[in-house]
Target: Pyrrolidone-carboxylate peptidase
Amino acid sequence: MKILVAAFDSFGGEKINPALEAVKLLADEIAGAEIVKLEIPTVFHKSAETLREKALEVKPDMILCVGQAGGRFAITPERVAINQDDARIPDNEDNQPIDVSIQEDGAPAYFATLPIKAMVEKIKAAGVPAAVSNSAGTFVCNHIMYQALYLAEKELDNIQAGFIHVPFIPEQVVDKPEKPAMSLEDIAKGLTAALEAMVEYHGKEDIKKIGGTTH
Amino acid sequence: MKILVAAFDSFGGEKINPALEAVKLLADEIAGAEIVKLEIPTVFHKSAETLREKALEVKPDMILCVGQAGGRFAITPERVAINQDDARIPDNEDNQPIDVSIQEDGAPAYFATLPIKAMVEKIKAAGVPAAVSNSAGTFVCNHIMYQALYLAEKELDNIQAGFIHVPFIPEQVVDKPEKPAMSLEDIAKGLTAALEAMVEYHGKEDIKKIGGTTH
Amino acid sequence: MKILVAAFDSFGGEKINPALEAVKLLADEIAGAEIVKLEIPTVFHKSAETLREKALEVKPDMILCVGQAGGRFAITPERVAINQDDARIPDNEDNQPIDVSIQEDGAPAYFATLPIKAMVEKIKAAGVPAAVSNSAGTFVCNHIMYQALYLAEKELDNIQAGFIHVPFIPEQVVDKPEKPAMSLEDIAKGLTAALEAMVEYHGKEDIKKIGGTTH
Amino acid sequence: MKILVAAFDSFGGEKINPALEAVKLLADEIAGAEIVKLEIPTVFHKSAETLREKALEVKPDMILCVGQAGGRFAITPERVAINQDDARIPDNEDNQPIDVSIQEDGAPAYFATLPIKAMVEKIKAAGVPAAVSNSAGTFVCNHIMYQALYLAEKELDNIQAGFIHVPFIPEQVVDKPEKPAMSLEDIAKGLTAALEAMVEYHGKEDIKKIGGTTH
Model:
């Protein structure tokens, strides 16, 4: 089995992206699956093209995209991606779309086809805080998750795909009071656990476990 | 013009629902529009039936549903509702669906058809904190927003519809340390401003204004 | 009985100080006590001189100083003032002392001599969130509380004195996401309840009630 | 040079105390100073007796006590300890003092005699979030800091002493949503940096650097 794991480069004035650094730390094989790593630019659409090219070349069995969510306390597999770009800040090539559809012929939203509840359980069992998130925002992270699922539907035979947001690492918050952080080692440990769950539940139903929020 | 404004009764151990109390305080006419108020039960599907019956009877030009988001700092018009119930707590009739579609033949998500950016601007101009929210959660609030938009599409000639989440009021957080609150008067003031924006932008495009989040 | 209630003018780029605005809303008589209101400048030492002059003139039975604590969720009577100025920002006359004693011959700290636990209970009973705070910071608020207690000890026959911090009001946080606020009416209601407790417990022991923190 | 580093055992339902675990990870020699480690019980007064016995035996040049501050985002050297116990929860021997002086003949407060600003700078330079804290609470952490400084004054020839609070570690917050954590390795790295600063500034003035708060 082959899993394509894509992570963004740094953005928003940060020198590094913990998502990318953690993906670099992943083993090349996890739970018997080959891990193919890919760096993608923090740019609307160009990120998706980079992912598409690699996916068509590698022909993975699953795709996991990873991005930074500065301010979150836990590793958060995303439940859903919505068909809308609404950039609070410019991307790395100064695009700042406001309330624009990502794909004219795409669904209003795609639900992750990865076992997000099992992933959360597995990450927590590894001693790392995790939770399902119900919004990937409206910037490039939601964009790439949407694009990955659109791509899977249109060109990749509906392979399973999804997205995980990870917190800042401590170095990033030294001058950001009251911002949570997680060590790179714990992020990598959490991503490894998530990938193990993906392999274990590949082609199977996700576990039924409470993971929603009242708002 | 007629606007149906629906709000939930109390749930989750709370004695009141600030959404409902604030809606009761609204004037019967706002910006020339007649405001029709409706209390709906905090129950999956039954809430939607109550809304449907009233809407078919009243034939409103727009629908605004309002619910409590304990822990939020601002009044938050919701951008999107997703086709999924995932209840962290039981509803008021002890239903607790986990990862279940709301409507088998519904879209994966519906975007609010209300001018959410204009509503946020108008609420803030009234001196009340407001922001677009990108997730209404996976409980009855997301449920009723989804159902309202589904109903509008299927039976109400695509009238505009959407949802607003409001914070706790001070009385509710007296014994909940570090939880934000907003006075009932400010919530009612904010909802009034939102309704004014709905009337002003009825049938028109929303304003183009940054209102997204990076995650 | 006469109570001198002093509040700071605005600082730190804010147009108003909710402490001062709320004090202006107080009745001139509360629980039988005459309320003498005083505006003090947000300036190290000068604030204390203003307070001292008024106190020597008015000869109050108690002193309550009130200041803004932007970011707090509740009305917080302070437990203790420490003999140290350490300004994160300049005061309104550009003084920015760092790690300097307030009074060379003063105690390292003064505990509030007001019934802070009873005040918290009374504020909460009025439906307004409240808690004891164990630090008034190291800016002018801690400074004036220290000075008020020093003054009471040295020149005012040990009359009871203390300090209350109040949150931002909604107008102040319209463009400050995730910052809690409290309406001016609720702040005034809370201060009134605190003053009632001060009158009721004047000269008596405070109630014994848990109000500490583990850190 | 010899430094006595004391840390509390676990309390409040937690299985471990990250303070103690991190202290165990410290090297036996840091910046040329011998590090003498001591576990102290989370019990009012008994903790102080344990510290006193060890200090009289070891005759350290400095004392650093370390405790857990669940909910804090950073490593926080404490500025001041106050002469008051006010326990929100019982200690490990079910004592729960409310508003009681720690030492009848003690000062109202003791300021840390460690170079807290230099310690914060050094911890941050090591890539670990840190800040001065202005309150150690009113539980055993404030108690032991107060007792250590009282002891230093009364029986240890005024050697330098102080206290550092450390955050939860990730394992502790797996089921505590929205609670920050720091890895044990980063806590140990931060404590090491703090001890290096203590050695470097031993007997010297602390640096003059902004480190206060407005409240």
